[in-house]
Amino acid sequence: VKMDAQIANVKFDGLFINASGVHCQLNNDLDELQANTFVAGTVTKSATLASRPGNPRPRYVDLAHGSINSMGLPNQGFDYYLNYALTRPSKPVILSVAGLSVAENLKMLTQIQESSFDGLTELNLSCPNVIGKPQLAYDFQATEEILTAVFSFFKKPLGVKLPPYFDLVHFDQMAAILNKFPLSHVNSINSIGNGLWVDPVTESVVIKPKNGFGGVGGAYILPTALANVRAFRMRLNPAIKLIGTGGVTTGADVFAHLLCGADIIAVGTQLQVEGPLVFERLTNELAAIMDEKNYQDIAELRGKLKTL
Ligand SMILES: O=C(O)c1[nH]c(=O)[nH]c(=O)c1I
């Protein structure tokens, strides 16, 4: 079964990447994914200029049908990931940046522009867990302003990581903004921000930061992820590709994301829970579904979701 995709000048020989934040903080984590036959590319942990320890622990918990996290952007610092991208990969590396200010984002993007990096860059506009900082992509004016500033000098392929939206008018408004820019891709969705999990035994929240509020991932968020992928596929210029992220735990979930229009698929919570073997399982489960339906190539079904 043919499973590949292209975003800008980058060819992915397969469908799967990790979701930024999972299995991608250190070189060894990234190398392990790069070496995995069923992984087509890797995304680095979103970077800030300086390294960060992140929020106090416990800051990640697996739940019955997903996860909750308030990591707080722990990372080794931008140079670490740029170096990785420049020296190590056999497969595509997507560099994720999440500066704490517009200036910090522009500084990192300038360094990428001036470097020999020729892969994809992803501007994370949706981190929900930096205390005191909003998810930037919920501010449409600020989003348009930062993309205008970025594209005034950044000439390499650039995508954005978006939070989930929950209102069709917001899809219209956000897509209208994104269509103004020569984006390589949109990665949708990030975790559903500021969920809360309560442990009835301890009568307590389960993560320490932010009084227990954190981003929700995993099966809980699949309907929201599918809606966002579909909504943006229907609204964005075809030249803007889609990375479908959120709620993938089975081959059927992958198939659903593809029907909604995803070009490649990112796996987060289920990678955290199951480890890198998840990619072989998802590949096999998807291939079985495609065989059963007599599809030879993903291109035959991508974006072909039917309505009633
Ligand atoms: O807390 C985090 O580090 C984090 N957690 C998320 O769920 N999404 C993000 O984009 C980030 I930057």
Describe the protein's architecture and organization:
- 32% of the residues lie in helices and 20% in strands.
- It is an alpha/beta fold.
- It has one domain (5-54, 73-191, 218-300): Aldolase class I (TIM Barrel), CATH 3.20.20.70.
- The strands form four sheets. It has an eight-stranded parallel sheet. A four-stranded antiparallel sheet has the order 5-6-14-11. Strands 1-2 form a two-stranded antiparallel sheet.
- Helix 4 (140-151) links the parallel strand 8 (120-124) and strand 9 (158-162).
- Helix 5 packs across helix 6.
- The chain is globular and about 50 Å long.
- It starts with a strand and ends in a 16-residue tail after the last helix.
Net shape: globular
- Helix residue percentage: 25-40%
Order of helix and strand elements from N to C terminus: EEEHEEEHEHEHEHEEEEEHEHEHH
Supply Rg: 18 Å
Query: Which architecture name does CATH use?
Result: Alpha-Beta Barrel
Strand order of the largest sheet: 3-16-15-10-9-8-7-4
> How many domains comprise the coordinates?
1
* Fourth CATH level, the homologous superfamily: Aldolase class I
CATH domain topology: TIM Barrel
| Percent of residues in β-strands | 15-25%
Largest sheet descriptor: 8 strands, parallel
Mean pLDDT over the full residue set = 97
Small molecules bound in the structure, each named once? the ligand O=C(O)c1[nH]c(=O)[nH]c(=O)c1I
